[in-house]
Amino acid sequence: MGHQMAYQSLTRTFQRLHHFAHLGAIASWDQAAMMPAKGNEARAAAQAELQVLMHQLITAPELAQQLRSAEQENLDEAQRASLREMCREWRQANLLPSELVEAKTLAASRCEHAWRSQRKNNDWQGFLPNFREVLRLAREEAALLAEANGVSRYDALLDKYEPGMRSAEIARIFDDVKSWLPGLIERARAKQAGETVIRPQGPFPVERQRELGLEAMKLLGFDFDGGRLDVSTHPFCGGVPEDVRITTRYRDDDFAQSLMGIVHETGHARYEQGLPRDLLSLPVGRARSMGIHESQSLSFEMQLGCSRGFLQLLAPMLRRHFGDQPAFDADNLAKLFTRVEPGYIRVDADELCYPAHVILRFEIERALIDGEIEAEDVPALWDEKMMAYLGVDTRGNYRDGCLQDIHWTDTFGYFPSYTLGAMYAAQYFATMRRAEPGLDDKIGRGELEPVFGWLRENIWSQGSRWSTDELVRRATGEALTPAHYRAHLEARYLG
Amino acid sequence: MGHQMAYQSLTRTFQRLHHFAHLGAIASWDQAAMMPAKGNEARAAAQAELQVLMHQLITAPELAQQLRSAEQENLDEAQRASLREMCREWRQANLLPSELVEAKTLAASRCEHAWRSQRKNNDWQGFLPNFREVLRLAREEAALLAEANGVSRYDALLDKYEPGMRSAEIARIFDDVKSWLPGLIERARAKQAGETVIRPQGPFPVERQRELGLEAMKLLGFDFDGGRLDVSTHPFCGGVPEDVRITTRYRDDDFAQSLMGIVHETGHARYEQGLPRDLLSLPVGRARSMGIHESQSLSFEMQLGCSRGFLQLLAPMLRRHFGDQPAFDADNLAKLFTRVEPGYIRVDADELCYPAHVILRFEIERALIDGEIEAEDVPALWDEKMMAYLGVDTRGNYRDGCLQDIHWTDTFGYFPSYTLGAMYAAQYFATMRRAEPGLDDKIGRGELEPVFGWLRENIWSQGSRWSTDELVRRATGEALTPAHYRAHLEARYLG
C-alpha cells in the first residue's frame, strides 16, 4: 500500500479507544454480575472518568483533518470500509455538543430513577414532567443529527442503531405486518384452544438449570475458552469479543425462561466470538447493527431453539438434568414453547405477539420525535393500539402499559431492531433451507454446523464491512423480505 | 482555607488517576479470578494502554510546578500530609526514564516466562543470563533513585515498599533475630517431638470449605456489601477499597491452607475496607506500606487466627461444616497450626521458620543491589544460609532453593516487609493486651470488636497520614520493638 499516514494514525486512535472500551466493558459486566452494592459509587465515578477520556479522544480536533486526509490516501477496499465506519463513529460522537450529552445523561438518570417507583405506583402524571424533558432533549439531538445527515428527525435516531435504515421503509414493512398479524394471532389461538399442553413440574434446582444451560451453550458452539456464563438481574451479552460474558437469571419453578434466555444470549455471543479477529480494534470489525445482532439471538432462540429438531435434542437433556416427565416429550415442548397468549408486557410476549408490541412502540416514538404528538398523548394511543393489535385493554393501567419499558427514559429509535432482527433471522433460515433441504433432519440429529457455518461465513465474519442492506443481500440473495417472516410464523403456528 | 489553586488542581489529577486505577484493579482481579484463557491477549493490551495513560498523567510537565506551588499554599496539617504523599508518588514515577521502565518490564517478563520451565528443570544456568539482565536494570533503577533520594542503592528500592525504612535498621533487627531464632526453632522442635497431633481426615468438599471460609470472614468482620470471596491460582487481596476482592484456592484433602489463607486475606481486606473513606482518591488515603499491610494480614492469621481463643471459636465451626473429628478439638488445632518443620519453601513455611527465609533473602538481595556480590554468587550463599538458619541442605537443588520465588524476576527490596509485618503485628497485640488484660478471654467468647476497634482506630483509619514510624509510635507508644515478636514466639512455641 502507498502512503497512509492519516489512515494509520486513525487506526492507532481507534485502537486506543478499543483498549479503553475493553476495560469499560469488563467493568460494566462486573457491575451487573459480580459487584457488591457498596462498590457502586466508586465504579460509577471510574466509568464516568473513562467516558470523559474516550469522548476527548474521539473529539480531538486533529481527527477531522485526518479523516479528510485519509479519504485521499491509497486505501484498499477493506480499508475504505474501515474508514467509512471510523467516519460514522466519529460523526456520532462529534455532532452533539457535550452540554447536550451531559444534559441527556442527567435527564435520563433522573427520569429512570423516579420511574422505578412511579411504575410501581401506576403514576403516569408523576412520570410526565421528567418524560417531557427527556423527549425535549431527544428531539434536540434528533434535530442536530437530522440536519447533519440530511434525514428526518426520527430517522436520525434510528440510524444510530440501524445504519442506513429509514422509518418509511420500516413503516411500509410494519403496515404489512399489521394487515395479517391480528388475524394470524386469532387463528393460532383458535387452533391452540383445542390442544392439551402438559406443564413441567418444578422445582428445578438452580444448579441443575445452570448445568443444563452450560450444556446447551456447548451444543450451540459457545467457546468457553473465550467467554463465561453468570447471573444478573437483567440478562445480557457483554464483555468483549475476545471474552464474551453472557448472563441469565434462574427461578426454581421455571426452567424455560432461563434456558431459552441462555440460547438467546448465546446467539449474541457467537456473533461476537465470530467477528473478524484481525479487525476487532476497529469499528469495521464490530457487529453491523442492533437489528443484525438481534437476528443472531433470534436465529438461535426462535429459528433454531424452538424448531422441532432442536426440541428433539433438548428433550433427553431435560430428562437427564431434571428426571423424566411427560412434559419433556418433544411434541409437548413444541406446544409449550409456541403457546400464544396476548398480554400486557413486551418482554414476556410470545413470538407471535411480540411484533405487535414493537410496532406500537415504533409508531408512538416516531410520532413523538417527529413532533406529531406530545408526551401526554402517549397513554391514549397506547390503549388504542393495544386493543387494535392484541385485543388487550390497558386503560388506566400505565404500570403494565406505557410505563413498562425503560427505553424511553433515554433511547428512541431502538424498538424496530427487535422485529427487524426476527425478520432477518427468518430470511437466513429460508436461505439455509433452500441450500440444504435436509437441514431440519440434521438439526434433529444434532448436526448444527451447517447453521453455524452459514452464519459464520455470511454474518459473523463480515463485521461491519458492508452496509446492512448489502450484508443481507450478499447472505440471502435479496434485500430484507418480510414474507419469509410471515411464512415462518404461519408454518409454525398454523402448520 | 486560603488560596489553594495548585493543591486543588493536584487533587483533581490524583482523582483521575484513582478512577483509572479502579478500572485497572477490577480488570486485574477479573484476570486472575474470572477471565477465560483466550481473553488474555486483549486484556494485556488494554491494561498496557491504561498504564501508558496513567504514566502520562503522573509525568505531565505541569505537575512539577504545581507540587512546588502547593508547598507555598495555605494548607492544613491533613492537606500537608496529603501533599507529601502526592510528592512521593510523583517522585517514584518521574525519577525513572520511561525507557528504563520499559526495559525493566520486558526483562522481567522474559525472565519470568523462562523461569516457569527453568524452575521445573532445576536449570540455574539457564536462568542466570536473564537474571543478570534483570539485576543490571534493578541496579540502574536503584542508582537513579538513590542519587535523587540521598540514600544507598538498596535502601532506594526498599523505600518503594517501606517508605522511610533503612536497611541498616533492618540488618540490626534481623541480626538480633538470627541470634535467637535457630535456638528457638530447635527448642520448639524438641518440645513438639513428644507431642501427639491428630491429623484431620478428609476429604473436605470444596463447597463446604467455601461456606466455612465465608463464615470465618463474617466472624472477622468482612463487609460483604463491599467485597467478595472468589478462587484464583495464587490467593490475593485485590479490587478497590470500596469493593475488596479476596481469593483463595481449595484442595479437598486439606481445609487448613484455604481457611487460614482466607483469614490472612481478610486481614488485608479489612485494612482496605477501613481506610479513610473521604480520602480514598488521594495517595494519603491509601495503605501506609507493604509491611503495615502485612501486619494486618498477620494480625488476623497469626496473632488472632492461631490464638487459643480463636481456635475455640473455630472448633465448633469445623464440626458443623465437616462433621465431628477428634482433630477438631481446640487443643489439637493449636498443635496442628503451630507445628514447626524447617523446609525448603518460603510460602509453605510455618510461623517460626518463616523469618529465616526472609532474612536469607534480604541479605542476598541487599548484597546484590549494593554490588557486593554478583548473580552467580547466589546459589552458594543460599546453601550456606539455609544450612545456618534452618539446617536445611539445598546444594544443587535450585528448584527448591534460589529458583523458588518469583520476586527477583522484577522486585528487589520487598522481602523484609513480610517479617516487619509479623513484628508490627506482635507489637500491636502486646499493646492491646496491656490495655485490656482480658482480651484473650474475650476472643474465646467471640468478642472480637476490641481487636477490630483497636486496628480500625490506630491503623486502618489513618491511611498514609503519618510516616510508618510515627504511625507505629502513635499506635503502640514506641518505635518498632522486635522484642514483642520474640516474646510472642517464645510464649507460643515454648510456653
Automatic annotation (TrEMBL), chains A, B:
Broad enzyme group: hydrolase
Keywords: Carboxypeptidase, Hydrolase, Metal-binding, Metalloprotease, Protease
Gene Ontology MF terms in the entry: carboxypeptidase activity
EC number: 3.4.17.19
Alphabetized InterPro entries for the sequence: Peptidase_M32_Taq (IPR001333)
Catalytic activity annotation: Release of a C-terminal amino acid with broad specificity, except for -Pro
Superkingdom, taxonomy of origin: Bacteria
UniProt function note: Broad specificity carboxypetidase that releases amino acids sequentially from the C-terminus, including neutral, aromatic, polar and basic residues.
UniProt family annotation: Belongs to the peptidase M32 family.
Name the UniProt record assigns to this protein: Metal-dependent carboxypeptidase
Lineage: Bacteria, Pseudomonadati, Pseudomonadota, Betaproteobacteria, Neisseriales
